[in-house]
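Anyone able to model this chain together with phosphoenolpyruvate?
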Amino acid sequence: MTETLQGVGVSHGVAIGQVRHMGTAVLEPEAKQIPTEDAPREQARARQAVDAVAADLQARGNLAGGEAQAVLDAQALMAQDPELMADVERRIAVGSSAERAVYDAFAAYRALLAAAGDYLAGRVADLDDVRNRIVARLMGVPMPGVPDSDEPYVLFARDLAPADTALLDPTLVLGFVTEEGGPTSHSAILARALGVPAVVAMPGATRMAEGVVVAVDGSSGAVIVDPSQETQERLRGEAAERKAALAASSGPGQTSDGHRVPLLANIGGPADVPAAVEMGAEGVGLFRTEFLFLDDSKKAPSEDAQVEAYRKVLEAFPEGRVVVRVLDAGADKPLDFLTPADEPNPALGVRGLRSLLEHPEVLRTQLRALARASEGLPVHLEVMAPMVADRQDAKAFADACREAGLQAKFGAMVEIPSAALRARSILQEVEFLSLGTNDLAQYAFAADRQVGAVARLQDPWQPALLDLIAMSAEAARATGKSCGVCGEAASDPVLACVLTGLGVTSLSMGAASIPYVRSKLSKVTLAQCERAAAAARATDSAADARAAASQVLSGE
Ligand code: PEP
Ligand code: MG
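re: yes, here you go
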């Protein structure tokens, strides 16, 4: 029966498809004793599960071909390792259930591999994946991590961290719906990067039945369960019309009276470049370099590997501006080689620039890689540091850039309220500011960006956040420097006009949002943007701010 549920729409467009759930993180079967007479049945169950998983891995390998096939074939062999199977059977014979025996036998094998030096230690993640597949099969629950599917689907999850989603196949994911997360969570960012519709903070998302068809409206936040054929056709028709209208908007970002606001793309690596170019991005306003290394974060990336990745991005914008952020590790984006494992509150700990200052060799390598990657290219390279708290941080970063001989502008992200409050002093050390409104909201409101229950406080329309933005933009204007926004606030077309009115000089967002922002901006004057900004700041709530600004901008 058709039913409409409501969450927070965070990435435009409509997706219609079957629900597939992201499996829960780690499956640890209960360690209970089973009667001896059940052992043969449990051993048979274990063998069947192992054989089925091996066959499935092989079938996937055959489909994928190339390098992926070699990896999947190797995993299939691991699953059927005779010694491992013998250990599983021994454990069952002394009273383990099939799932617990598999879990424990793999743990023992894992410890051996991990101790056996570099090459074998690198296989541990593959071994864990095999174990998870077998245990999930035995327990009759979805496989942890990204769903196994050959058909496109709508991904449902509690929340999506970048590390979970590094392996998502963008050709299969039609859209996202999450139970947790706010408009600035990484689920939202990832959806915009992939250009797929998304709804976050939707109560009950994790309980939605697997396989049911849903229509997700990433603008309104509505999720229609089991929509009729007629509804599906109507939604598809509307989405196509909207897309065609947006495709007609092109050219640089500017207001109707010609005030220029460059529209830049947020990217996580070379794979995001084609979409940015297609949407007419005038450059890159935020290159999240840590995204390149999330799936293999045991060791710091080599200088050469970094040069290769950076060069691909820099070459794509020959005359444009590319703002690269140095590694922002920590909290929801841990990198083993930078992030302390035992912090009580990682969001407030040694993350972002702080961890780079504790590992100066990692920062030096990255800056040298950027210098080499940009050699001989006409690109305007800018480099910025995440999580700058004060002038001392800004100076340490600028010194490191100068020491590395980097021919680039150095900037600071404003993500911590102290940096907005003292923007002028930070600008004594760096040449530009870039507002990371996602973290700025998180820290200004003490509201974790991963937690759906506090999404209200993560709303970038909150007047207090607008005040912090205004303060930073004003400091930049007074010192003749630039101040962009690269947080998700820039991707809301109405808010983008307000940011322009607050004095922000460029807007950077997931590529898919660029046409929406360009189109809205081209319909309003700078004076209207300024009036909308003043009207929004005069209110006391996000909802009132949005309503007041929308009214000014629609000319009512
Ligand atoms: C931000 O905090 O607004 C930002 C752009 O950085 P990230 O989302 O990667 O933390
Ligand atoms: Mg941030």
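The first helix runs from residue 39 to 64.
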